Amino acid sequence: xxxxxxxxxxxxxxxLTLSHIWDVxxxxxxxxxxxYSKNLNNPFTIPWFGLKGLANINKTPLSIYExxxxxxxxxHTPDMYISCNSFQFFLRILAQIMKKAxxxxxxxxxxxxxxxxxSKFHQKRMCELTEVGLQNFFYLFLxxxxxxxxxxxxxxxxxxxxxxxxxxxxxxxxALIWKGYFAFILxxxxxxxxxxxxxxxLSAAFCEKAKEFxxxxxxxxxxxxxxxxxxxxxxxxxxxxxxxxxxxxxEEKLMSDGFSMLLPGCRGPELAAVLNxxxxxxxxxxxxxxxxxQGLRLGNPGPNAQPSSVAKEHHLAVAKALWRNFFPYxxxxxxxxxxxxxIADTAAGLTLLALDLPSTCTSDLQPQPIIxxxxxxxxxxxxxxxLVSRYxxxxxxxxxxxxxxxxMGHSSYQSLFVQSWFRCILQTFIxxxxxxxxxxxxxxxxxxxxxxxxxxxTRLIFKLPEVITIFSKAHFEESxxxxxxxxxxxxxxxxVGKNYSELQHLPEKSVMVTKALVYLGxxxxxxxxxxxxxxxxxxxxxxxxxxxxxxxxxAAILATSKAQxxxxxxxxxxxxxxxxxxxxxxxPAVMLAAIRENLPxxxxxxSFICCHCQSQSQSAYLNQLLRDVIRQYxxxxxxxxxxxxxxxxxxxLCGSTxxxxxIQLHKTTVQVxxxxxxxxxxxxxxxxxxxxxxxxxxLQRTKSIEICDVETLLPSVLKCLTLVNEPQVKKxxxxxxxxxxxxxxxxxxxxxxxxxxxxxxxxxxxxxTVYDNQVYSILETVAILDQSLVICLIPAxxxxxxxxxxxxxxxxxxxQREAYKRLLSHLTEAGQMEIxxxxxxxx
Length: 843
Description:
The protein has 42 helices and no strands. By secondary structure, it is an all-alpha fold. Among the domains are: about 1-195, no CATH class; about 450-640, no CATH class; about 770-840, no CATH class. The protein is rod-shaped. It starts with a helix and ends with a helix.
């Protein structure tokens, strides 16, 4: 009892060296065991060694097992005096002598030593063991189990541990006991022995503690203590699965129902640890099953070898346990607003397990579990986009999965992948607050990680055969847009639109429309949160930019009867929501900014649809919608634009070439201006100067005069010149009049000139009686530009003069006639002749 640890180490190291030379000597084992049986609670440390000499309790089951293997090996290292305590030297001597004795004398020495060791353990002795004592107890029994009669040693170990009172055993002692059990299980696995006898009691204890963990909510200390035990079990099971080559030794017994109670009680790091464990188990199970299918031999040759059918039964049992205990929780978590990323990783692993062992899946996934899993985690538009994108990243390039989906007749799976990718990008900002706030570091890190995830998903989507074909037919070259998911969406939309425009036959077009609608999914449902919350700004801008691009590039698709319901919903939700139609309400600034930036795309696309709609009634309705959109936003953005040239409607007009849809947009805009912004109702229209400046800019930029400009716009401009004396209005109206007259001169065919004469003639008839001076002044301006035009109007002017005098009933109106003659004096010979007629006529 008085021997120092450093002396014991020195003596026992010498004995260990000599045991290799000496014959079998059981006496030395008996004598040394007599000492240690009384001192198992001793840590056997050397104080002046410092930290190196301290006993290490926090070992994993695998490290304990590896340590035991080293005790039973013949390998000695120079630093053993420092790395091993005296009790560990004893264990090495025990292993060395028992191996030598077994070869020479059979089982008799083993039974003799085993009896002496067993006799020292009884209920009182077991209850006296401290944590260090328990560790030494396990080391001893694990060495015995490694040497011979493993099942007998394990049975004796379990009997002795049952002497311990659950109430008097500390949490750390229980954790150590569980580690010891797992170290025994690893010993069994190394010897290809069935682990059921050890796994079942350990699994039952785990179930009990998992239930306590679930119901313990407010006692944080108790929860931490329970987690120490439960994490020990989780880590131990993982080491068992990673150590077992073929998973054919009843490993399924460790996958107890306790996991179904553990998961709901986990939070944060605890949940991440369990899900990481599940991924490791899934990987090992699939690997073992693949090896089995490849026909590899199982286990070591000999009496313990098993047929492949038995191994397969074990694999099926493990898989069923995984589905039973883990899948319900994962299924419930998929709807969480921000699920941990491991949920997606684990769901992907289970999907691949369903591919390998479909019969093991739960009944709610049958009869096609792969499709059911894809619908739950990859194609359901209610699932968090971050989960979906991470989940699909694991699976898109899996050729076996692609073959399985195709074999099941689910040929549209690539389109659904694209749909999910589309949604994930649209909903990039879905969980951000609507207000413009400074993002925290955590939020910025999370957003950056998600963008990297989307970039990877985009790369994989663009490798799908269906997507490759679309880009190939559109003749789009490889570009860096793949590195920017949002830019990639725009290019994809453009490629689909170009593909459709090049199709010639109706059946092909019909198929393409159907496929395009699948790509989009319920796009307005995806962006509804942005519209309801009126933010965040990034989400609204992304929404309007993508759908605006869609309206322009897919205009021909949206013009079809299949796609028109979507078109009407887009207009109702994005361009003409209820708030726009109410006079006392105004859209939030962030939404107006998003609309303003992308309105040109919407207008150009809608104009195309109006021109190519087959149904007359639908065409009338679409034209009305186009008018409503222009009417609502022309006035709203007049004040927001510092210059008329920045107005989105003006940008839409200028961005169109001389196509039927461009003419349609121009015509509708002119109609809206004339009917809604240039109408005199007692007073001059509000913001008249801004409206005229916009109109002039539009005419100058479009560089072409249409008949609607003369027919619809010119009467309103003439009215402004007649009734408004404000200098800016006069100037702008005169410039518009000048532009229209000059445009009619350059336009071949004479149709515009004819219409121009008709409008001016009606103007003369309507205003000469009251506003004769203004009428003649305006016509003088016209005469400067096109004298022949006004000459054609001489009969109408003269008739209007006479009608005016007749209505006044006062005979000749000298002042009016003088004003008229001044105008005629500028009209060459025709004017002079009309002056003579007026002077010579009798009244």
